[in-house]
Amino acid sequence: MPRRRFKWRKFRRRKSDILLRRYERKLVEALAELQIPLLLLNFALFVGTLGYMYLSGGDFINSLYMTVITIGTIGYGEVVAGSDTPIGRIFTTFLALWGIGIFTTSATVIVRVFFKKDLVAIYRRIMMLYAIRDLKDHFIVTGYDEVTRWLVRFLERKDIKAVVITPDSSVEEELRENGIDYYIFGIPYRDEYLYAAGIKKAKGLVVNSKDDAEAIAIVSSARLIRPDEDFRIYALVSNEELVEKLYQIGASRVVDREQVLASRLVAHILHPESSRITHLFDKIAFAEESDMDIVELYVDENSPYAGKTLSEIDIGRKYGVNVIGIRRADGDLEVNVRGSTRVYPGDVLIIFGKEKDIREFREKEVER
Amino acid sequence: MNFKKIFNHFFILMALTTNISFLIYPHPIEIVITVFANLTATILKIGESRALSTELLATSLVADLHLIPAIFVFFLGNVDEAISLAYGALAANIVSVILFVIETIIDTFTEE
């Protein structure tokens, strides 16, 4: 019978926990500074108590009390038997001489460790990383500025959680004031921070960086970790030349911030007479304060809609949503759709309706 | 030779041995030394970041929380109650020693 061989292996730790372990190590290191003052304090209490016990013939409680009031500079008097004798006073003198020093030094070190090392901040970051570890289908946003604030706010309205990674830890107060619940301070293109932000379980990443090299580094690092198409990478850039490069290294969508602003503004300029409609479509398209939504549905060969007319599909009556256009497989956009319009495999249906109706439609027809 | 390790291991064992000696001969000085050894062992485990440090600290705290009431109960006259609490601390100290042996083995293999 072959003998089983047992091999010792190093325990492999999850990459998402690297940052968590680092913070935990920081906390432990800060606590380690308490060792010496606590040891000295313990030793002073032990020697003092044992000495007074010897003098008093074993009165522990009063001996401990006498030691505490001596090294704590309280000095209520000689409360233990034997402490008012010459030997007792010699002992108290020496105990006070080094005991008071130990007590005050220890108290100073303990207070310094708690305040200077900012144990509360380290503990808060550990708790934050544990909370991020539980997130799923969230978005990671790198960089912090006005755009990030709006972005997180809009995502929150749609119940999508966002984790912000920024190297600037001085904005912590501001982040909390702006209702950003999840944040990590670190260099966004470094793997450990992306892992800590839950990139493996995230739905997407938004790169909001004004530094071109940093944007390239973040997109490439993220794409190397998540090469799958399900993970969407959106990049917001100010440099037109960067757009193509970011697409090449794996960005799903690159937005030129100046171009977007200009095109949105042009929409208002060109349609001044229909500003309400422009505004409504704006809100729907950009998922702002509106209960209306617009989604696209790809019709493949196995879809129950393939080959049917819109009146046969009849999603308007079933769910209260409407097909307002069809992008045909050859790229043509058909907006004049009627009940007799037929749907073919490869088409994309553009569906418009109330958010809750769209959700119901998606749950019952798309995700079934 | 790692002097910190010697110091740590010395007090872990000292916590156990002084506890046993108090149980065999319940003397006032014995219990004071036991409490001192246990508190020292606990303090030495604060800030350690080795494989089983958390578990070791937890067992030490258990022993302390048995022995600190035991010392007051003992000097207030209830020796039986103090001894029973010291038995509880003994159990925690034994677990602590077992954990420290396991940790030493893990350290030996992971240091390679």
At the fold tier of CATH, the topology name of the largest domain in chain A is Rossmann fold
Question: What share of the residues of chain B does DSSP label as strand, in percent?
Answer: under 5%
Structural category of chain B is mainly alpha
Low-confidence stretches of chain B: none
Number of domains of chain A: 3
Could you state the order of secondary-structure elements of chain A as H and E?
HHHHHEHEHEHEHEHEHHEHHEEEH
Number of helices of chain A: 15
* Overall 3D form of chain A: elongated
**Coarse morphology of chain B:** elongated
Q: Give me the number of helical elements of chain B.
A: 4
| Overall pLDDT score of chain A | 85
Helix content bin of chain B: over 70%
Number of domains of chain B: 1
Percent helix of chain A, as a range, is 40-55%
Our Rg estimate of chain A from Cα atoms comes to: 34 Å
Mean pLDDT of chain B: 92
| Chain pair sharing the greatest interface | A-B, 23 and 20 residues
| Oligomerization category of the chains in this entry | heterodimer
